[in-house]
Amino acid sequence: VIMVALTPHALSAGWMAYEAGIAEASGKRIMLLLPSKYPVTELPDDFASTPIVEMDPQAPERAAHDVASRLASAA
Fold this sequence. Notes:
By secondary structure, this protein is an alpha/beta fold. It has helices at about 10, 15-25, 60-75, and strands at about 1-5, 30-35, 50-55.
C-alpha cells in the first residue's frame, strides 16, 4: 500500500502518475489521502478508481482510523 498526501493539482504532475504506475506494476495497492477541502471530482481521471481517504485537518485521527481499517481489511 502506498499512501500519498496530495492536492488535486499535485496529482496532475507527471511524476505522480509515474510513481502510481510503477507501484501498480509492482503489484502494490495505492490509497490516496485527500484533504477534505478538495472535492473528489477535482481528481484527474487517472485516479478515478483509486481508493480515497478524505482527511479533515481538524480531525486527522478519523483519517488514520479509516486508513487502519482499510489496511486491516486488505490483509
